[in-house]
Amino acid sequence: MAHPPTTERRGRRPFSGRRVPPLAQWPRSYRWLLGAALLLAAFGAGMLIHAMWSRPAAVADPHAAPQPADDPHAQHVHDHEDEPLTSMRELTVRPEVAALMNIEVAPVEQRHVSAVVRMVGKIDYDETRVRHVTAWVAGRIDRMFVDYEGIEIRHGDPLVEIYSEELIVAQGELLRLMRWQPEDDADRMARSERRPGTGGEIDLIEAARTKLRRLGLTDQQIREIEDRGVEMEHLTIHAPIRGTIFEKVRREGDRVAEGDRIYGVAELDHLWARMDAYEADLPWLRYGQPVEFTTEAYPGEFFQGRIVFIDPVLNERTRTVKVRINVPNP
Hints:
- The chain is an alpha+beta fold.
- Among the domains are: 127-266, CATH 2.40.50.100; 269-328, Elongation Factor Tu (Ef-tu), domain 3 (Beta Barrel), CATH 2.40.30.170.
- The chain contains seven helices and 15 strands.
- α4 (165-179) runs antiparallel to α6.
- The longest helix has 27 residues, at 28-54.
- It is rod-shaped, with a radius of gyration of 50 Å.
- The N and C termini lie far apart (143 Å).
Protein backbone atom coordinates (compact mmCIF):
# COMPACT_ATOMS: atom_id res chain seq x y z
CA MET A 1 0.00 0.00 0.00
CA ALA A 2 1.42 3.14 -1.05
CA HIS A 3 1.80 5.90 1.43
CA PRO A 4 0.87 9.46 0.50
CA PRO A 5 3.78 11.69 -0.19
CA THR A 6 4.92 13.80 2.72
CA THR A 7 6.27 17.39 2.54
CA GLU A 8 9.00 18.70 4.88
CA ARG A 9 8.35 22.22 6.31
CA ARG A 10 11.52 24.28 6.40
CA GLY A 11 11.89 27.27 8.76
CA ARG A 12 13.03 28.30 12.27
CA ARG A 13 13.32 25.71 14.90
CA PRO A 14 10.81 26.05 17.67
CA PHE A 15 11.93 27.28 21.18
CA SER A 16 13.24 24.33 23.02
CA GLY A 17 12.36 25.74 26.49
CA ARG A 18 15.95 25.48 27.81
CA ARG A 19 17.09 28.30 30.21
CA VAL A 20 20.29 30.34 29.93
CA PRO A 21 22.85 28.97 32.38
CA PRO A 22 23.78 31.24 35.34
CA LEU A 23 26.74 33.64 35.06
CA ALA A 24 28.88 31.52 37.36
CA GLN A 25 28.70 28.66 34.84
CA TRP A 26 29.87 30.80 31.92
CA PRO A 27 33.40 30.35 30.71
CA ARG A 28 35.93 32.69 32.24
CA SER A 29 36.69 34.41 28.94
CA TYR A 30 33.01 35.29 28.48
CA ARG A 31 32.78 36.77 31.94
CA TRP A 32 35.88 39.00 31.38
CA LEU A 33 34.44 40.26 28.11
CA LEU A 34 31.09 41.07 29.72
CA GLY A 35 32.74 42.98 32.61
CA ALA A 36 34.92 45.02 30.24
CA ALA A 37 31.87 45.95 28.16
CA LEU A 38 29.99 47.15 31.25
CA LEU A 39 32.94 49.25 32.45
CA LEU A 40 33.31 50.90 29.06
CA ALA A 41 29.59 51.66 28.94
CA ALA A 42 29.65 53.22 32.44
CA PHE A 43 32.74 55.33 31.67
CA GLY A 44 31.22 56.64 28.45
CA ALA A 45 27.95 57.54 30.18
CA GLY A 46 29.86 59.40 32.94
CA MET A 47 31.89 61.44 30.46
CA LEU A 48 28.75 62.36 28.56
CA ILE A 49 26.98 63.56 31.70
CA HIS A 50 30.07 65.54 32.83
CA ALA A 51 30.33 67.26 29.44
CA MET A 52 26.66 68.18 29.49
CA TRP A 53 26.81 69.74 32.98
CA SER A 54 30.19 71.47 32.69
CA ARG A 55 29.69 73.17 29.34
CA PRO A 56 28.05 76.63 29.65
CA ALA A 57 24.63 76.70 28.10
CA ALA A 58 23.71 79.54 25.84
CA VAL A 59 20.34 80.91 26.89
CA ALA A 60 18.37 82.11 23.94
CA ASP A 61 16.27 85.22 24.21
CA PRO A 62 12.71 84.43 22.95
CA HIS A 63 12.15 88.11 22.09
CA ALA A 64 15.37 88.48 20.14
CA ALA A 65 15.30 88.47 16.38
CA PRO A 66 16.92 85.53 14.58
CA GLN A 67 20.50 86.21 13.64
CA PRO A 68 22.04 85.21 10.35
CA ALA A 69 24.61 82.50 10.19
CA ASP A 70 27.41 84.94 9.43
CA ASP A 71 26.66 87.16 12.46
CA PRO A 72 29.97 87.74 14.33
CA HIS A 73 28.26 87.58 17.72
CA ALA A 74 26.63 84.26 16.93
CA GLN A 75 29.93 82.91 15.59
CA HIS A 76 31.65 84.09 18.84
CA VAL A 77 29.13 82.22 20.98
CA HIS A 78 29.57 79.12 18.88
CA ASP A 79 33.34 79.27 19.14
CA HIS A 80 33.15 79.90 22.88
CA GLU A 81 31.04 76.83 23.39
CA ASP A 82 33.47 74.70 21.38
CA GLU A 83 36.44 75.73 23.55
CA PRO A 84 37.80 72.78 25.57
CA LEU A 85 37.88 72.95 29.35
CA THR A 86 41.40 73.70 30.59
CA SER A 87 40.84 72.83 34.26
CA MET A 88 38.23 71.24 36.47
CA ARG A 89 38.40 74.35 38.73
CA GLU A 90 37.88 76.84 35.92
CA LEU A 91 34.52 78.56 35.51
CA THR A 92 33.78 79.86 32.03
CA VAL A 93 30.88 82.25 31.44
CA ARG A 94 29.98 84.78 28.82
CA PRO A 95 30.80 88.47 29.44
CA GLU A 96 27.17 89.49 29.79
CA VAL A 97 26.54 86.70 32.27
CA ALA A 98 29.62 87.73 34.25
CA ALA A 99 28.29 91.30 34.39
CA LEU A 100 24.98 90.08 35.82
CA MET A 101 26.81 87.91 38.38
CA ASN A 102 28.92 90.93 39.52
CA ILE A 103 32.17 88.95 39.38
CA GLU A 104 35.39 90.84 40.26
CA VAL A 105 38.81 89.56 39.26
CA ALA A 106 42.06 90.54 41.03
CA PRO A 107 45.65 89.33 40.63
CA VAL A 108 47.08 87.04 43.31
CA GLU A 109 49.40 88.90 45.71
CA GLN A 110 50.91 88.43 49.15
CA ARG A 111 49.78 90.96 51.75
CA HIS A 112 48.37 91.24 55.27
CA VAL A 113 44.70 90.35 55.46
CA SER A 114 42.54 92.96 57.19
CA ALA A 115 40.00 91.76 59.72
CA VAL A 116 37.61 93.36 62.20
CA VAL A 117 38.67 92.54 65.76
CA ARG A 118 36.38 93.79 68.50
CA MET A 119 38.14 94.86 71.70
CA VAL A 120 37.12 96.91 74.70
CA GLY A 121 39.35 99.18 76.75
CA LYS A 122 39.92 102.71 77.99
CA ILE A 123 41.97 105.80 77.20
CA ASP A 124 44.84 106.54 79.58
CA TYR A 125 47.80 108.88 79.95
CA ASP A 126 51.04 108.16 78.13
CA GLU A 127 53.28 107.17 81.01
CA THR A 128 56.37 108.31 79.12
CA ARG A 129 54.96 111.86 79.11
CA VAL A 130 54.04 112.12 82.79
CA ARG A 131 56.02 114.17 85.31
CA HIS A 132 55.61 114.56 89.08
CA VAL A 133 56.27 117.83 90.87
CA THR A 134 58.03 117.05 94.17
CA ALA A 135 59.41 119.06 97.07
CA TRP A 136 63.12 119.78 96.69
CA VAL A 137 63.51 120.63 100.37
CA ALA A 138 61.62 119.91 103.56
CA GLY A 139 59.28 122.69 104.62
CA ARG A 140 55.74 124.04 104.70
CA ILE A 141 53.51 124.75 101.70
CA ASP A 142 52.41 128.37 102.06
CA ARG A 143 50.89 128.91 98.62
CA MET A 144 49.60 126.77 95.75
CA PHE A 145 49.08 128.47 92.39
CA VAL A 146 47.01 125.55 91.00
CA ASP A 147 44.00 124.85 93.17
CA TYR A 148 42.35 121.94 91.34
CA GLU A 149 42.97 119.25 88.78
CA GLY A 150 42.45 119.66 85.04
CA ILE A 151 44.20 123.03 84.65
CA GLU A 152 46.54 123.36 81.68
CA ILE A 153 49.97 124.77 82.48
CA ARG A 154 53.01 125.84 80.47
CA HIS A 155 56.64 125.06 81.04
CA GLY A 156 58.07 127.32 83.73
CA ASP A 157 54.77 128.40 85.31
CA PRO A 158 54.96 128.78 89.12
CA LEU A 159 53.14 125.99 90.92
CA VAL A 160 53.88 126.16 94.66
CA GLU A 161 55.79 128.18 97.27
CA ILE A 162 57.51 126.37 100.15
CA TYR A 163 58.92 127.89 103.33
CA SER A 164 62.03 125.95 104.29
CA GLU A 165 64.36 126.58 107.23
CA GLU A 166 67.09 124.56 105.55
CA LEU A 167 66.90 126.76 102.46
CA ILE A 168 67.19 129.96 104.52
CA VAL A 169 70.30 128.63 106.29
CA ALA A 170 71.95 127.74 102.95
CA GLN A 171 71.23 131.21 101.59
CA GLY A 172 72.75 132.77 104.69
CA GLU A 173 75.96 130.81 104.14
CA LEU A 174 76.24 132.18 100.61
CA LEU A 175 75.63 135.77 101.72
CA ARG A 176 78.23 135.56 104.50
CA LEU A 177 80.80 134.23 102.08
CA MET A 178 79.94 137.04 99.66
CA ARG A 179 80.57 139.62 102.42
CA TRP A 180 83.92 138.04 103.22
CA GLN A 181 84.93 137.87 99.60
CA PRO A 182 88.64 138.88 99.32
CA GLU A 183 89.57 141.84 97.19
CA ASP A 184 92.68 140.38 95.53
CA ASP A 185 94.07 137.01 94.59
CA ALA A 186 96.43 136.88 97.58
CA ASP A 187 93.58 137.28 100.06
CA ARG A 188 91.47 134.76 98.10
CA MET A 189 94.27 132.20 98.32
CA ALA A 190 94.71 132.90 102.01
CA ARG A 191 91.00 132.47 102.82
CA SER A 192 90.27 129.56 100.50
CA GLU A 193 90.12 126.07 101.93
CA ARG A 194 92.55 123.44 100.71
CA ARG A 195 91.18 120.12 99.47
CA PRO A 196 92.64 117.27 101.54
CA GLY A 197 95.07 115.03 99.67
CA THR A 198 95.14 117.06 96.47
CA GLY A 199 96.70 120.37 97.40
CA GLY A 200 94.01 122.22 95.38
CA GLU A 201 91.77 125.00 96.62
CA ILE A 202 87.99 124.86 97.03
CA ASP A 203 85.94 127.90 96.02
CA LEU A 204 83.61 128.21 98.99
CA ILE A 205 81.30 130.67 97.22
CA GLU A 206 80.81 128.35 94.26
CA ALA A 207 80.26 125.44 96.64
CA ALA A 208 77.50 127.45 98.39
CA ARG A 209 75.88 128.17 95.01
CA THR A 210 75.99 124.48 94.09
CA LYS A 211 74.28 123.63 97.37
CA LEU A 212 71.46 126.06 96.58
CA ARG A 213 71.04 124.56 93.11
CA ARG A 214 70.61 121.12 94.65
CA LEU A 215 67.94 122.56 96.93
CA GLY A 216 65.94 123.67 93.90
CA LEU A 217 66.99 127.24 93.22
CA THR A 218 67.74 128.34 89.68
CA ASP A 219 70.75 130.41 88.63
CA GLN A 220 68.52 133.44 88.18
CA GLN A 221 67.17 133.12 91.73
CA ILE A 222 70.72 132.77 93.10
CA ARG A 223 71.79 135.95 91.30
CA GLU A 224 68.80 137.80 92.74
CA ILE A 225 69.81 136.72 96.27
CA GLU A 226 73.37 137.91 95.69
CA ASP A 227 72.16 141.26 94.29
CA ARG A 228 69.69 141.93 97.11
CA GLY A 229 71.85 140.57 99.88
CA VAL A 230 68.75 139.17 101.64
CA GLU A 231 67.58 135.57 101.97
CA MET A 232 64.45 134.40 100.15
CA GLU A 233 61.86 133.13 102.60
CA HIS A 234 60.07 130.89 100.10
CA LEU A 235 61.16 128.50 97.38
CA THR A 236 59.04 128.69 94.22
CA ILE A 237 58.74 125.42 92.30
CA HIS A 238 58.03 125.81 88.58
CA ALA A 239 56.36 123.47 86.10
CA PRO A 240 58.86 121.04 84.54
CA ILE A 241 56.83 120.47 81.33
CA ARG A 242 53.79 121.76 79.47
CA GLY A 243 50.67 119.72 80.15
CA THR A 244 47.61 119.25 82.32
CA ILE A 245 47.41 118.81 86.07
CA PHE A 246 45.82 115.39 86.61
CA GLU A 247 46.75 114.88 90.27
CA LYS A 248 46.89 117.17 93.31
CA VAL A 249 48.30 115.45 96.38
CA ARG A 250 48.94 118.28 98.89
CA ARG A 251 47.11 121.34 100.16
CA GLU A 252 48.20 124.70 101.48
CA GLY A 253 49.63 124.45 104.98
CA ASP A 254 50.83 120.84 104.66
CA ARG A 255 54.31 119.93 105.80
CA VAL A 256 56.34 118.12 103.16
CA ALA A 257 59.61 116.24 103.31
CA GLU A 258 62.23 116.19 100.60
CA GLY A 259 60.92 114.19 97.65
CA ASP A 260 57.21 114.28 98.61
CA ARG A 261 54.86 114.43 95.62
CA ILE A 262 52.76 117.59 95.22
CA TYR A 263 51.36 117.56 91.65
CA GLY A 264 51.10 115.20 88.71
CA VAL A 265 51.46 116.69 85.21
CA ALA A 266 50.77 114.87 81.92
CA GLU A 267 51.21 115.87 78.30
CA LEU A 268 48.02 115.03 76.41
CA ASP A 269 49.44 115.33 72.90
CA HIS A 270 49.80 111.53 72.90
CA LEU A 271 47.61 109.04 74.74
CA TRP A 272 47.46 105.33 75.37
CA ALA A 273 44.52 103.10 74.52
CA ARG A 274 44.62 100.03 76.75
CA MET A 275 42.60 97.26 75.08
CA ASP A 276 41.66 93.71 76.10
CA ALA A 277 42.06 91.25 73.22
CA TYR A 278 40.54 87.79 73.39
CA GLU A 279 42.73 84.76 72.99
CA ALA A 280 41.14 83.76 69.67
CA ASP A 281 41.93 87.19 68.15
CA LEU A 282 45.66 87.16 68.87
CA PRO A 283 46.64 85.78 65.40
CA TRP A 284 45.21 88.96 63.87
CA LEU A 285 47.32 91.31 66.03
CA ARG A 286 51.00 92.20 65.64
CA TYR A 287 53.47 94.83 66.81
CA GLY A 288 53.34 98.07 64.80
CA GLN A 289 49.93 97.28 63.28
CA PRO A 290 47.71 100.31 62.52
CA VAL A 291 44.41 100.28 64.40
CA GLU A 292 41.17 102.20 64.00
CA PHE A 293 38.66 102.49 66.83
CA THR A 294 35.75 104.55 68.10
CA THR A 295 34.64 105.74 71.53
CA GLU A 296 31.35 106.27 73.30
CA ALA A 297 32.12 109.97 73.86
CA TYR A 298 32.39 110.61 70.10
CA PRO A 299 30.04 108.17 68.35
CA GLY A 300 30.63 107.85 64.63
CA GLU A 301 34.12 109.38 64.82
CA PHE A 302 37.09 107.08 64.24
CA PHE A 303 40.55 107.44 65.75
CA GLN A 304 43.79 105.98 64.42
CA GLY A 305 46.62 104.49 66.43
CA ARG A 306 49.38 101.89 66.31
CA ILE A 307 50.02 98.82 68.46
CA VAL A 308 53.23 99.31 70.48
CA PHE A 309 52.94 96.55 73.06
CA ILE A 310 51.22 93.16 73.44
CA ASP A 311 51.31 91.67 76.91
CA PRO A 312 52.98 88.23 76.77
CA VAL A 313 50.96 87.03 79.80
CA LEU A 314 47.39 85.75 79.34
CA ASN A 315 44.79 86.52 82.00
CA GLU A 316 43.57 83.09 83.09
CA ARG A 317 40.27 84.39 84.45
CA THR A 318 39.14 86.48 81.45
CA ARG A 319 41.27 84.72 78.76
CA THR A 320 42.35 88.12 77.44
CA VAL A 321 45.65 89.86 76.75
CA LYS A 322 46.43 93.54 77.32
CA VAL A 323 47.18 95.46 74.12
CA ARG A 324 48.56 99.01 74.26
CA ILE A 325 47.99 101.43 71.39
CA ASN A 326 49.69 104.80 70.87
CA VAL A 327 47.12 107.40 69.85
CA PRO A 328 48.04 110.94 68.71
CA ASN A 329 45.84 113.63 70.25
CA PRO A 330 46.50 116.86 68.31
